[in-house]
Design the sequence.
C-alpha cells in the first residue's frame, strides 16, 4: 500500500496540544475503499512515554476515508511530540506519515465588561445596555498568544437566550456547550443577552480539558427606565436612617446591613444592586430567619447624595424577578483604600503602556505584568493589589475600591514575567470630581512570606480616554 497517502486533518501540525488534555486526532486516507486499519505511534521528545498515549493502537477507516483516535497527554513538559501513522497491510516496512506538534501549558484569562445588563427581546450587538461582552485570552507559558485554541462555553441552569461571536462559534450538542476558537492574537469574543430577568452561571474552559472557571451574570431591569410592571418589595436598611438619611459614621465596621423581605417562593440565587454596581451575587443566605446582606460602605455616595438599592432573584430555571428600588440619602465619611508601605521589588507594570489609567486600559480587562524577581520559587504565592481612589461621576462623592488577585508561581514562570487580569466590570466609573480633582491608581504585589514591591502610582479616570 505504498501508494496510499495519509493527511493529518485535525489538529494541524501548526496547532498547539495542551498538557493534561485529551486530544482528538483525525487523519484522511486517500483510498476510501481501504478496509484495513490505521496504526498510531507517539514519540514525545523529552517526556515519559506513559504521559503521552493513544487510547487505541489502531483504528478503522470509515467510508469517507477518515480515521480518528484520541490522544491523552498527562505530562507537564513543554516539548515536541511526533505522531506517526501507517496502514496495516502485512508489509514489513509500511510507509509512515508523520506530524510534529508542540505541547504547551496554556492559561486562560477572561474578562466581563459588566456583571449585569437589561433583558431584551431582540439581540443588538451595539446596545451596551442589553449585551455583556466576554473577552477571552489564551497564552502559553511564555505569555505568547495561542491562536486557533478551542474553548467551550455554557450557562447554568440555562444558556443565555442570545450567544454570538464574531469568531467561529458553534453549538456542540454532545457536550451541551458552545465552542469557539481564538484568533491570530489568541483572543476570542463572546457576546450574550437574555430575554428575561434572572441570574446565570457562565462556564468557560479549554475544549479538551476538564478545567472550568465560572462567573455569575445578572439580567435585570433595575436602573432601566423601561422596567417591569410587577416588582417585588424593596430591600430594607437595618441601620438607623432617620429622616431618610443613612449616616455611615454611626455604623461600626465597613458594612451596611440590609434585609430582603420574605419571599413566598424561595429562589436559588440573588443579586444585590447598589448605585449601578452588583454588591453581591450568589446563593440566598438566611441568618436567624432573615435574609441579611452586608454592603461595603465604599459603594455608597456621600455628601447627602441620593443612593439606589434593589435586588434580583432567580429560580431554578434561571428566570427571575426584580424588586422595587429603595432611594435614600447618605452622609458620613468613607475610608480610602491605600497600600501599607512600599517594598524593594521592582514595581508592577502595565501591559498596555500609559501615563494614566483610562477607559482604553480597562476594555477587555486591565492587564498587570509582574516582572521577574530574585529568588523566585515554584509555589510562591504572589498577591497583586490595586487601589482605586476617585469619584462618582458628576459628584464630589469619593469612589474607592481595593481589588486583589492571587497567583501561584509554576515551573513555567521561573524565567518569565507573568500577567494577572482585573475585571473591566470592577474598574468602571472611577473619574475626576465635580471640582476637577483627579483620581489615583496604585498597584503593588507581595510575595507572601518574602517581600513586597514598590508601588506603581498613576492618575485614574476610567470614564474617559
Sequence:
Amino acid at each position: 500500500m505504498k501508494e496510499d497517502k495519509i493527511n493529518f486533518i485535525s489538529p494541524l501540525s501548526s496547532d498547539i496540544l495542551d498538557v493534561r488534555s485529551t486530544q482528538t486526532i483525525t487523519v484522511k486516507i486517500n483510498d476510501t475503499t481501504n478496509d484495513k486499519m490505521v496504526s498510531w505511534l507517539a514519540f514525545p521528545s523529552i517526556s515519559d512515554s506513559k504521559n503521552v498515549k493513544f487510547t487505541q493502537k489502531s483504528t478503522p477507516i470509515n467510508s469517507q476515508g477518515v480515521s480518528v483516535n484520541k490522544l491523552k497527554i498527562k505530562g507537564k513538559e513543554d516539548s515536541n511530540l511526533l505522531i506517526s501513522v501507517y496502514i496495516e497491510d502485512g508489509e514489513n516496512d509500511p510507509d509512515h506519515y508523520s506530524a510534529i506538534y508542540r505541547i504547551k501549558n496554556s492559561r486562560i484569562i477572561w474578562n466581563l465588561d459588566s456583571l449585569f445588563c437589561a433583558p431584551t427581546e431582540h439581540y443588538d450587538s451595539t446596545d451596551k445596555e442589553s449585551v455583556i461582552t466576554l473577552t477571552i485570552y489564551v497564552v502559553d507559558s511564555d505569555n505568547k498568544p495561542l491562536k486557533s485554541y478551542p474553548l467551550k462555553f455554557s450557562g447554568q441552569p440555562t444558556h443565555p437566550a442570545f450567544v454570538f461571536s464574531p469568531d467561529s462559534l458553534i453549538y456542540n450538542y454532545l457536550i451541551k456547550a458552545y465552542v469557539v476558537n481564538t484568533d491570530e492574537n489568541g483572543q476570542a469574543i463572546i457576546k450574550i443577552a437574555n430575554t428575561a430577568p434572572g441570574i446565570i452561571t457562565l462556564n468557560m474552559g479549554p475544549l479538551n480539558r476538564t478545567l472550568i472557571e465560572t462567573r455569575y451574570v445578572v439580567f435585570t431591569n433595575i436602573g432601566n427606565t423601561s422596567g417591569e410592571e410587577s416588582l417585588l418589595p424593596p430591600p430594607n436598611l437595618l441601620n438607623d436612617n432617620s429622616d431618610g438619611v443613612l449616616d455611615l459614621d454611626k455604623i461600626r465596621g465597613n458594612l451596611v446591613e440590609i434585609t430582603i423581605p420574605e419571599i413566598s417562593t424561595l429562589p436559588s440565587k440573588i443579586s444585590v444592586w447598589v448605585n449601578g454596581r452588583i454588591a453581591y451575587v450568589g446563593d440566598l443566605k438566611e441568618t436567624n430567619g432573615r435574609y441579611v446582606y452586608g454592603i461595603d460602605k465604599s459603594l455608597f455616595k456621600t455628601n447627602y447624595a441620593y443612593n439606589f438599592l434593589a435586588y434580583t432573584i432567580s429560580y431554578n430555571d434561571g428566570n427571575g424577578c426584580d424588586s422595587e428600588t429603595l432611594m435614600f440619602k447618605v452622609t458620613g465619611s468613607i475610608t480610602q483604600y491605600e497600600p501599607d508601605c512600599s517594598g524593594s521589588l521592582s514595581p508592577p507594570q502595565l501591559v498596555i503602556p500609559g501615563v494614566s489609567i483610562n477607559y482604553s486600559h480597562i476594555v477587555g480587562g486591565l492587564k498587570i505584568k509582574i516582572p521577574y524577581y530574585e529568588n523566585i520559587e515554584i509555589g510562591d504565592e504572589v498577591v497583586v493589589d490595586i487601589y482605586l481612589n476617585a469619584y462618582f461621576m458628576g459628584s464630589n462623592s469619593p469612589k474607592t475600591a481595593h481589588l486583589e488577585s492571587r497567583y501561584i508561581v509554576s515551573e513555567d514562570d521561573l524565567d518569565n514575567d507573568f500577567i494577572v487580569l482585573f475585571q473591566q466590570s470592577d474598574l468602571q466609573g472611577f473619574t475626576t470630581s465635580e471640582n476637577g480633582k483627579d483620581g489615583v491608581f496604585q498597584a503593588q504585589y507581595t510575595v507572601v512570606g518574602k517581600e513586597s514591591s514598590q508601588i506603581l502610582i498613576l492618575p485614574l479616570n476610567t470614564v474617559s480616554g
